[in-house]
Known about the structure:
Layout: H1 7-11, H2 35-50, H3 58-76, H4 83-109, H5 112-119
Helix pairs in contact: 2-3, 2-4, 3-4
Amino acid sequence: MQPSPPPEESQGQPTPPPPPGGGAPGPGGQQPSNGLGLASMIVGIVSLVLICCGGLGFLPGIVAVVLGVLGKQKADRGEATNRGQAMAGLICGGIAVALGLLWFILVFVLGVVDAMVWSTL
C-alpha cells in the first residue's frame, strides 16, 4: 500500500508564500505605530546640538520630552515597539532642557557672559 500524497500535491498547487512584512501585528491586527518614539529621538538629538548655539535647544528639548512621554506610553500599551527610542528622546530632551535653563540663568540672571565679554575689551 502506498502512502497518500499531501493535500497540496494532490491538488497540483503549491502552498502560497507567507505575506510580506514579517513583523508581528500589534493589537487588533494593526501594525505598530512608532512615529512618536522616532520623532522624540530625532528632536532630542537635534536639541542637544542646538543647545550649543546660544541655548536654542531649549524649546526643541521640551518637544522631545513631550513626544518621548507620549511614545513611551504608547509602547507600554503595546501600540508601539520602540520604547528605547522614546526613552532616548526623553533623556536627550531632558538634558537639553536642563542645559537650556542653566544657560538662561548664567546669561540673563547672573550676566556671566556679558561680564566675560566686557572684561576682555
